């Protein structure tokens, strides 16, 4: 079979460094009985070693040429291939046993990483662990603290849902073709419902999105018509504050306060 040419429209960069692959496998910690779902298996750099630990796994792959390669390389009893876009995939359509851990892993296409992370939030309570390769800059945004220039909507909304670890970086030469950016590995564990205190999570999401829509402006301007200065003071938020200065807890408190006021 001829060599597969990486396609820019799919954001394809294929991992080939065996040391990095082994480090990722250790981060995933595959065990027999796991319900393991890989996003974008590509040329099976992770798929093949993962199948040394578990007898069967699932893969979500959009590129039909790669699907054909995977079908020739692996038996159906080893790999169930879902030939579809991960952005539209229902991750709960794959049943997991009562004692199984549902794990979602993969080298995510960098051109859709943020939308895909937000799509996965929908399934967060039912996924025990997520381990992803992403652009390092994206992971820095995910784990950023308030007042950090990388801190934004992605930081707040993912930190509301997950405990996240930036595990290690992956240099460009670990891929073919080599990307122009450094990559990194993140491991994400869903927070239990008891640790999420927003009264209306949809309201919180919309509030955070609007707050960061013009991050250089003060919140009293970006949230004009939504939040009054008095309501900001009631939540111990300075009227000169900008979105990047507020902690996750402050966003949740402000959202809950606004819901109480309107009730």
TrEMBL record:
Top-level division of the source organism's lineage: Bacteria
Compartment(s): Cytoplasm
Listed EC numbers: 2.1.1.182
Keywords attached to this entry: Cytoplasm, Methyltransferase, RNA-binding, rRNA processing, S-adenosyl-L-methionine, Transferase
GO MF: 16S rRNA (adenine(1518)-N(6)/adenine(1519)-N(6))-dimethyltransferase activity; RNA binding
GO cellular component: cytosol
SMART domains registered for this protein in UniProt: rADc (SM00650)
Reaction catalysis annotation: adenosine(1518)/adenosine(1519) in 16S rRNA + 4 S-adenosyl-L-methionine = N(6)-dimethyladenosine(1518)/N(6)-dimethyladenosine(1519) in 16S rRNA + 4 S-adenosyl-L-homocysteine + 4 H(+)
Domain called Ribosomal RNA adenine methylase transferase N-terminal: residue spans: 20-192
Binding positions (S-adenosyl-L-methionine): 13, 15, 40, 61, 85, 107
EC category: transferase
PANTHER family recorded: DIMETHYLADENOSINE TRANSFERASE, DIMETHYLADENOSINE TRANSFERASE-RELATED
Function: Specifically dimethylates two adjacent adenosines (A1518 and A1519) in the loop of a conserved hairpin near the 3'-end of 16S rRNA in the 30S particle. May play a critical role in biogenesis of 30S subunits.
Protein family: Belongs to the class I-like SAM-binding methyltransferase superfamily. rRNA adenine N(6)-methyltransferase family. RsmA subfamily.
Name of this protein: Ribosomal RNA small subunit methyltransferase A
Organism classification: Bacteria, Pseudomonadati, Pseudomonadota, Betaproteobacteria, Burkholderiales
């Amino acid at each position: 079979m001829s060599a597969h040419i990486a396609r820019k429209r799919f954001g394809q960069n294929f991992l080939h460094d065996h040391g990095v692959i082994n480090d990722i496998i250790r981060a995933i910690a595959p065990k027999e009985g796991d319900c393991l779902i890989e996003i974008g298996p590509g040329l099976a750099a992770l798929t093949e070693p993962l199948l040394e630990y578990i007898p069967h796994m699932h893969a979500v792959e959009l590129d039909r040429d790669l699907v054909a390669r995977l079908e020739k390389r692996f038996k159906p009893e080893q790999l169930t291939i879902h030939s579809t876009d991960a952005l539209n995939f229902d991750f709960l359509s794959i049943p997991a046993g009562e004692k199984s851990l549902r794990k979602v892993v993969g080298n995510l296409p960098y051109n859709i990483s943020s939308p895909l992370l937000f799509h996965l939030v929908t399934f967060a309570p039912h996924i025990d662990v997520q381990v992803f390769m992403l652009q390092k800059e994206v992971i820095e945004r995910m784990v950023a603290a308030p007042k950090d220039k990388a801190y934004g909507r992605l930081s707040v909304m993912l930190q509301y849902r997950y405990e996240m670890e930036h595990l290690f970086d992956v240099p460009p030469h670990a891929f073919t073709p080599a990307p122009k950016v450094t990559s990194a590995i993140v491991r994400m564990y869903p927070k239990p419902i008891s640790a999420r205190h927003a009264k209306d999570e949809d309201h919180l999401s919309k509030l955070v999105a609007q707050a960061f829509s013009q991050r250089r402006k003060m919140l009293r301007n970006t949230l004009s018509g939504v939040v009054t200065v008095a309501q900001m003071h009631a939540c111990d938020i300075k009227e000169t504050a900008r979105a990047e200065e507020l902690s996750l807890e402050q966003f949740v408190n402000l959202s809950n306060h606004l819901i109480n006021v309107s009730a």
